[in-house]
Amino acid sequence: MPSSRFNCAARAIALCGVFALPAAPACALNILLCNDDGITAANLRALKSKLVAAGHSVAVAAPIDNQSGRGGYIAFLTPIGTLTGKERGALALGLAAGAPGVGVDAGDADVSYVNGTPVAACLYGVDVLAKKKWGGAPDLVISGPNEGNNTGAINASSGTFNNLVYMINRGLPAMAVSDATTTQVTWSGALPASHRVYEVAGIVVKLVDTLVANKAKAGGLLMPEGVGLNVNVPDFSAGAGAALPYRFTRIGKASSYLPAFYEKLSDSPLAVASGVNYPVPGISLATGGTMLPSGVTLPKDTAATSEDNVIATKTAVTISPVEGVPQARRAFEDAMKIKLNGIAQ
Question: Is residue 178 annotated as part of the catalytic site, yes or no?
Answer without folding.
Answer: yes
